[in-house]
Amino acid sequence: xxxxxxxxxxxxxxxxxxxxxxxxxxxxxxxxxxxxxxxxxxxxxxxxxxxxxxxxxxxxxxxxxxxxxxxxxxxxxxxxxxxxxxxxxxxxxxxxxxxxxxxxxxxxxxxxxxxxxxxxxxxxxxxxxxxxxxxxxxxxxxxxxxxxxxxxxxxxxxxxxxxxxxxxxxxxxxxxxxxxxxxxxxxxxxxxxxxxxxxxxxxxxxxxxxxxxxxxxxxxxxxxxxxxxxxxxxxxxxxxxxxxxxxxxxxxxxxxxxxxxxxxxxxxxxxxxxxxxxxxxxxxxxxxxxxxxxxxxxxxxxxxxxxxxxxxxxxxxxxxxxxxxxxxxxxxxxxxxxxxxxxxxxxxxxxxxxxxxxxxxxxxxxxxxxxxxxxxxxxxxxxxxxxxxxxxxxxxxxxxxxxxxxxxxxxxxxxxxxxxxxxxxxxxxxxxxxxxxxxxxxxxxxxxxxxxxxxxxxxxxxxxxxxxxxxxxxxxxxxxxxxxxxxxxxxxxxxxxxxxxxxxxxxxxxxxxxxxxxxxxxxxxxxxxxxxxxxxxxxxxxxxxxxxxxxxxxxxxxxxxxxxxxxxxxxxxxx
Length: 575
What we know:
- 46% of the residues lie in helices and 13% in strands.
- It has a four-stranded parallel β-sheet. Strands 4-3-13 form a three-stranded mixed β-sheet, with helices on one face.
- Helix 2 runs parallel beside helix 3, helix 2 (32-41) packs across helix 5 (86-94) and helix 9 (162-177) packs parallel to helix 18.
- The longest helix is centred in the last third of the chain and has 26 residues, at 474-499.
């Protein structure tokens, strides 16, 4: 049994031990016992189970007492072993919708315009699109580099869910390929770049730690030139993707000038790794950045040329051979207002992004011993990016000639499987088995799957058979479809997470917004006044949250000197 199966939407059978519960517990509803167990397995911290009838009360108490760092699913299966009613208990728990309140059949969130249970329910892939078991087993033999990356990252950041390391490994491959591989589809080229957001609550899932591992791997692979500068404001994106020298270039430090010159060979083939990705979504809502959304939408398709702007002062800015990879972490609460923006569901923005959410409950694991990033990770990535794939060259000072990209082939069965997956996804849309707001996202899952298959084929080709044609095999496709199905589940889970935010999660984006508007920083007292949290208990809550944000690398506490009076300590934003 997997944790994903616990959310399967089905009609619940009469739970074990529920026959007389209405007499014993007037506030108890028939599904409360299975609901309680399912929520514990999903990682929620629940109140006492004393009001539950047997066998649910005993199971809940044993589940809490026996975890001790183990997976809740494993503990639950151990508790069922040997019980005569195990099958009945298991059926009742599997039938639970974990997003539903046990005292209310189904609840809705008006801000999301639809019952959360409907948004979270993940419809099964139609039979036409399912992979045979034999092919799924073969898929594990592809993408050795990705497997190695996930294995290392799990050691280095064990509190981060493995799915975080999976998406970050794919982001690294997307970055290293840098528009030099494509698949010809109809009358256009399909490139393997991806947009991704990691959406999880702060601290519990160590998403920043996982993110930094990926950044260090790129740096040690000598691929820092492929990363956009940290903290780049959205309005500067287009300027960074062109070869035009900035107006202030002469005043830069020599090291910054040298870095800029190195980056010019891959000026338009970059990765935008953001420390807080919600800032990009915030920028889309600002009137003076109205063009940014259109640029991000267009850049996903890697156009040969995009004339981004033309002004009297700067003239025309043109991005050539565009290829943008985007990735960054954020929180469910920071995403909440954006998920309510109907236009982002309809204009293709969210359809372009892979949303990655935790696929397991949070786990407390202490720091690992000192561990170095192995050459077995960095060498293949460097080899792929700087040796196996063709490199740009400077034909005259300041003029870069980008190389002809490698056209990948594919096995005949790959195309048939790709079409079958598209047919299965289309059936889910056409039969109205998913909410209408998900239509655009579902409509791109088959494209995302092929992008991933192309990444896997490229890294295998570069490591094992660079003298052979680059070919997407059936095994590459199978693994890519399996990964994409995980991301399909993530889309539904994100809605559930965004609908259940804590008070701290609501406060964090407000603090970020106030600090973003105050470059010199704000003292804790100033923030307390702005947030109406001057009462002692509220002030303590604010201080704890600021300290947590400091540990997460979002803010820093430093001395702020004023023109008059003594210096004061102020919180300043780092993202």
